[in-house]
Every structure is written in C-alpha cells, then in structure tokens.
Amino acid sequence: xxxxxxxxxxxxxxxxxxxxxxxxxxxxxxxxxxxxxxxxxxxxxxxxxxxxxxxxxxxxxxxxxxxxxxxxxxxxxxxxxxxxxxxxxxxxxxxxxxxxxxxxxxxxxxxxxxxxxxxxxxxxxxxxxxxxxxxxxxxxxxxxxxxxxxxxxxxxxxxxxxxxxxxxxxxxxxxxxxxxxxxxxxxxxxxxxxxxxxxxxxxxxxxxxxxxxxxxxxxxxxxxxxxxxxxxxxxxx
Length: 237
Hints:
Elements: E1 3-6, H1 9-12, E2 17-18, E3 23-26, E4 51-58, H2 59-64, H3 74-77, E5 85-93, H4 111-117, H5 124-133, H6 143-155, E6 158-159, H7 162-166, E7 170-171, H8 172-181, E8 191-195, E9 201-208, E10 229-230
Antiparallel strand pairs: 1-3, 2-6, 4-5, 4-9, 7-10, 8-9
C-alpha cells in the first residue's frame, strides 16, 4: 500500500503551519542504504552529552543547489514530492565545543523505520548517516526510538508564512524572531540560522537541553549574525 501524505491546509494557512511535508508519497520500494562509517575526517568520538541540537533544512534551497542533483535526492526533489522544512537530524552536543559522534557500531536502519520517517527526513541514506553519526551516541536508543524522538520534536514546530517572508528584505535575526513568534517557548536566542555563500537560507539549528526543552544556544555554535542579510528561495511554482 502506498502511504500518501498531502496536506492542503499548509498551502492555505496565512500565519503558522505545521512542520510537515506539503506533498509526500512513499511507495513500497524503500531505497537501499549503505553503511555510514567513521573516517579520518569524521572519527569516532565519545564524550558526555551536555545538550542537543535539532537541525532542520529548507528543502527548496537544497533542491535548487547542486546537492539536489544527487541520486539520493530523487525522493526529496522529484517524484512529485514537495517539501518545506525537513528534518536534518537530532544531534547530541558535548559539554564544551566537542560533540560525540559514531559512538558505537551502527547496523543498517530497517526499511520499515526508514519508510515511516521519509516524509520528515526524505533521504534514506541521510537517515542511515544520522543514526550512525548521532543516534548511536544516545544511550539505550535504537533506530526506531531515535527517529521517533527526533521526528516528534520536528513535528511540534510551526512556521511563519515563508512565502511572505521570502518577499521581504530580511535579516537572520528578523527570520529567527518570526519563527520564534509562532512557537511558544522558543526565543530567537535559542536558534542559529545558516545560509549559503550568497545568503540564501539553508538550515535552522534549534538548541535543546538534555530534557529536550528549548534553551539558549552556546556562543560557540556559530550561525549567521542577527544583522546578516537573509534571502529565502521559494522554489518552483
């Protein structure tokens, strides 16, 4: 059976919308994934968890970039699917500037788990990467528990009218304030906004405590300065 998710209300909502796919259809053939392993550039690192980051990506910009031409991006950027913000992942952070990664060997994520979360993280290989690099550092977690946790955090988010914001002269701080305004408990200082070299919105990193509640981001986490100009790619119409 084909799982279909098409939420027309997202297209009509004037203010805040849910963090869900605009149009997403998952068929029976879930893409196969390859193992994701530590490397010299991305080594295994086991350090205590001090907090978390929930990373979400602006899909229209991803699909516009060369990254959207990768074979692994076909589900996200083609096949009739359409996304706004997608879930990049839930990242454990360290107590200081270092973070844990690839903490233990990672088996291949089961196809049923991948299928259940493709309308949140629309890349099977990215799901394998997120589990291997980040999920394995969360004690007691299985792939199913990791993606259930991260997807629940993602789905509780609401978003401002991105089409209207894309037509404004905008700064990273103004965008953060607009996002915070439609999410109770989330302040502009609790997120980091990133962009590509031309200033197009790329991702938002939302800072969470060990209890998964919103918290002020540490100064070293990076992101754009609040006064930095920001543009939002609306995607094809």
